[in-house]
Write a structure and sequence with these properties.
4 strands; 4-stranded antiparallel beta sheet; alpha+beta; 88 residues
Length: 88
């Protein structure tokens, strides 16, 4: 059995009661495509804009189209990577 790959320790955080791993930072349109593919395979995705830290929902600031971070549950990290590699 293959050893699971883990993101760097500084690339994880608790969101709710679950440890999430940073999948990467991407331009918003590309990130939305990744999010749709992963959520279609039942992998939850937390999309974070630079405004998340300020507690500003996008409804108040308009749709941000720059770089966003995608976070996924750490326990599903390997599965998410396999899905994305397969879909390329």
């Amino acid at each position: 059995m293959a050893k699971p790959s883990l993101p760097p320790a500084d690339s994880t955080r608790l969101i709710g009661a679950e440890r999430y791993a940073l999948l990467g930072t991407f331009p918003r349109p590309f990130a939305e495509g990744i999010r749709v593919r992963l959520e279609g395979r039942k992998i939850p995705v937390f999309l974070e804009t630079p405004f998340t830290y300020f507690g500003l929902p996008e409804a108040y600031i308009g749709t941000y189209t720059g770089d966003v971070a995608l976070w996924i549950p750490q326990r599903l990290y390997d599965e998410a990577l396999m899905i994305l590699e397969r879909d390329q």
